[in-house]
Amino acid sequence: MNKQSKPIADDEDEFGPALSEAELEAWFVRNRDALNESIVEARRELAEGKGAVWDFEALLADAEAEFEKSQKD
To answer: Are 19 and 27 in contact (CB under 8 A)?
Structure first.
């Protein structure tokens, strides 16, 4: 007999309704300084060699390998 699964919650169930354009703009205005600071810090870390640039081809190869593995199980 098949095992029943729990329903998967969608984003609205977990986070509430999507924000309107006006709400999004207000959020960006409220958080502009923190967002800019985060971007500056990330760029500094990349310049210092602390971060890694994502290799899209490697990410895609990993995803394909995981998919192939899941098809065999």
So the answer is: yes
Contact 58, 66 (CB under 8 A): no
- The CA distance from 57 to 63, in Å, is 10
Domain ranges in the chain are 21-71
Instruction: Report how far residue 17's alpha carbon sits from residue 30's, in angstroms, rounded to the nearest whole number.
Output: 20
DSSP for 9-31 reads: P-HHHHH-SPPPHHHHHHHHHHH
Report yes or no on whether pTM surpasses 0.90. Answer: no
CB 46 within 8 A of CB 53: yes
